[in-house]
Design goal:
Layout lengths: L4 E5 L4 H16 L4 E5 L14 H8 L5 H10 L3 E5 H7 L10 E4 L1 H5 L6 E2 L1
Parallel strand pairs: 1-2, 1-5, 2-3, 3-4
Helix pairs in contact: 1-3
Protein name: Putative peroxiredoxin
InterPro entries: DsrEFH-like
């Protein structure tokens, strides 16, 4: 069995979100347990109304955008953790997050000795 994968999303930049979620989706497709930890500006991807104009362009090319990759990762069983401190700093309640996204801290991400790939 492959080692679990940990992905940490810290930036709201489209390219970084795409890269991190592509890695997470790839790990899940290969059967790896995958944790996605979201903090800072990247928290927007955890909100139900998240939409990026770049997603529309990518869809026109037959490619997945950030929202599509996010939904795929949730659907494939990734463990999603929204940073509790970042939520508090942004004035967001846990209820504002998409279903399936838990609230936690760094210990929950790195539990078991995982070292996250940071995007």
């Amino acid at each position: 069995m492959s080692a679990p994968l940990a992905v940490m999303l810290v930036s709201g930049a489209q390219a970084r979100l795409l890269a991190g979620l592509t890695l997470a989706a790839g790990g899940l497709a290969m059967g790896r347990e995958t944790r996605v930890f979201v903090t800072g500006e990247a928290l927007v991807v955890c909100l139900p109304d998240y939409h990026a104009a770049e997603d529309d362009r990518l869809a026109g090319l037959g490619l997945a955008g950030v929202a599509g990759l996010r939904d795929a990762c949730l659907g494939m069983g990734a463990t999603w953790l929204a940073c509790d401190s970042a939520l508090h700093a942004a004035g967001l309640a846990p209820e504002a997050l998409l279903p399936g996204i838990e609230v936690g801290g760094i210990p929950a991400l790195i539990e078991g000795g995982l070292t996250p790939a940071v995007f």
